[in-house]
């Protein structure tokens, strides 16, 4: 009986611990590319992780991004040139706005 109670207590503690870690909200990255028609694709890269975002009228949003430092890379349509933004810091439960990214020809 004593052992069964201990097993239940341990199982409950483990469940609560996993729930607490699962409730941490991840961050995000947002910005805008101008001119909008110049942007082909936007990527966020950290180590071996690569995220892709849809572009809507030049605006992009990366959601559920793990905490860390990213490079945001805009792949451009000709005649524009690719551009990157380095050292974009993402914190849990926060969206980092990197503002406007202007493509050059």
Automatic annotation (TrEMBL):
Keywords recorded for this protein, A-Z: Carboxypeptidase, Hydrolase, Protease
Entries under InterPro entries matching the protein: Carb-bd-like_fold
GO MF assignments: carbohydrate binding; carboxypeptidase activity
Keyword Hydrolase set for record: yes
SUPFAM superfamilies: Starch-binding domain-like
Protein name (Swiss-Prot/TrEMBL): Carboxypeptidase regulatory-like domain-containing protein
The organism of origin for this protein: Pedobacter cryotolerans
